[in-house]
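Methods — Computational structure assignment.
A single polypeptide chain was analysed. Its primary sequence is given first, followed by the predicted tertiary structure written as structure tokens.
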Amino acid sequence: MKRSNARETLAVIGLALVVVLTSCVPGKQAQKVPVKTCSDCHPDMVARLQTGNVHEPVKDNKCSACHLPHGIIGGLFLRQDEPDLCFPCHGQLRPSPDEKSIHKPVALGKCSSCHNPHNSPFPNLLKEKPGELCFKCHDKAPFEQKYIHSPVKQGCNTCHDAHMSKNVSLLIKDPDTLCKSCHNVDQAGFKKAHMDYPVTSGCLQCHTPHGSARPGLLKRNVHEPVEVGKCDACHRISNKGAIILKAKADSLCLSCHSRSEKHEKSIHKPYQDDKCTACHAVHASDYQALLARSPKTVCLNCHKIGRNKKMQSLHPPVGKGECLDCHRGHESGEKFLLNAPEKDLCFKCHDRATYAGSSSHPGRKRACATCHTPHESRNKDLLTNKESSLCFSCHREAADQMGRFSLHQPFVNGNCIGCHKLHEGQGSNYLKMDNSHGQLCISCHQGVLKSEGEGVKPHEPVASGECLACHAPHAADYPYVIKDKLGNLCMGCHEDVRQVITHSKVSHEPVASGECSACHVAHGSPHENILKKAQPMLCLSCHNETARYWRDGVSHKPATQNCLLCHSPHGSDNVAIINVPAERLCAKCHDEKTGRFLNVHKGIRPGPRSCLTCHDPHGSPGKGLLYPVSHAPFKNGICSPCHPGRSK
């Protein structure tokens, strides 16, 4: 075997040498087959991508500049993820550390947010018209005011760089320089508009750069001295012609806006320290109370709320920056600068009848802060603690049930609101919906009866929606959250069965052990008496030896129809839990007084309890339901040797 393998190896090596030597022989060189390009297989795609403004690699059919070839696995695989794919050619657009502002898509490296990588009908491979593209992210409302700044109509890139800038807000120049590139501050008209004050800077302190409802693009709210042209209330002109303040800005504010003499319960720290400009603009603002920036920005500059990504829920006013909906800016007679008593504040937005009515949990006497935080929470619905822990802090009896054997799934998951609606629940248990007919239970357990098939007859408690007649709502010491041992539970309603079991000499084994579910389906069944199977298949699932002769032999007709024709299902005073004494059972169908009966028994009249000494009550190999092993005289039909004179 080894020699054969060696010969095969040498043959392969020899063939390889021949090929190599042949290729070295001078002569006509083999023609090199040109490599196919993407356009050879995808001409339609290439043609479609050659319209409009085309990306340079696409124009030159250099798909491999960005894509890997298909290889074994098909697909358009990029050589690198963006933006690293783009920067080898567009390195000038890579943000540097000294940039003051970076467009968010650029900062995130999402070049394809704005650009189409192949071709576009718009300049710079933009996905849409330049103006419309910006409004995919930026609110259009400020650009649709009564008065619109002229450069806005020319396009955003008139003032802004689309990628990054060393100036604020992606401006191509610093704000004042940019404004003065169009507005000549030395013109008479400009000076007149500014009450002949030598204004040369600070344009954005009074004007909004995009659009305004006021002439001159003034911001929505203007400080009164500015509004009436009394700039000298705060300013004076220096000897060098510069505008300077008469005093420190914060001191100037207090010359008109005197502080309250009341000793309020809570005072805002900047207000207490006379730092008005920490929050307010001095000339004009687009925000209420002349705030320098949006309330959200002003407040969160000091109060670190809403930035923790681990928080699961955020109060909507906090998320919208509507801090002043709940708090005062300067001082308040309530704690935490609240603008109303804590017991009333929440009901400015939330209906009092719903959340603090007599039927609301936890009732009128408890404040909202009992369960909720006002700003943000690591838990859902602004809860102060995990839902289950919070509920158990008051409902100790429910907490104790956590140690039981069987737990309702929402309960073990701590999902109390799976069943309860804490503010406007129904009934004393604050349920999400009325459960008088099992509506709440059915909302989750819709398949309770569907699994049993068509034509299901429900168990009476199920039909009437009395789920809690058998099941505990939270936990129990028995499987399936049932309230008691199965036998005890069933007997609580089925007193007639209890009486049978109690007073019977012989009990059916499942009944004696309290295993009602061995034969019955708890919720419903298509079979009579909510049995698991129809007769006789139910009994045969345990007593399969009963049917051993039914296929190849003779069956007793009652046995194949219904076991209960002869047996009681729960208990009886008779052996084998037959429903009447043995001497009467067979006689119910077989009349022993007929001539045929006497003839079949060889003229001998059997005793009233002797049927089962010869006959199998369920089935037999042969007719007559005789046992397969017989006494020799009996087998030969001779009875008189043992039973003389029994014919009468």
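Note: The radius of gyration is 47 Å.
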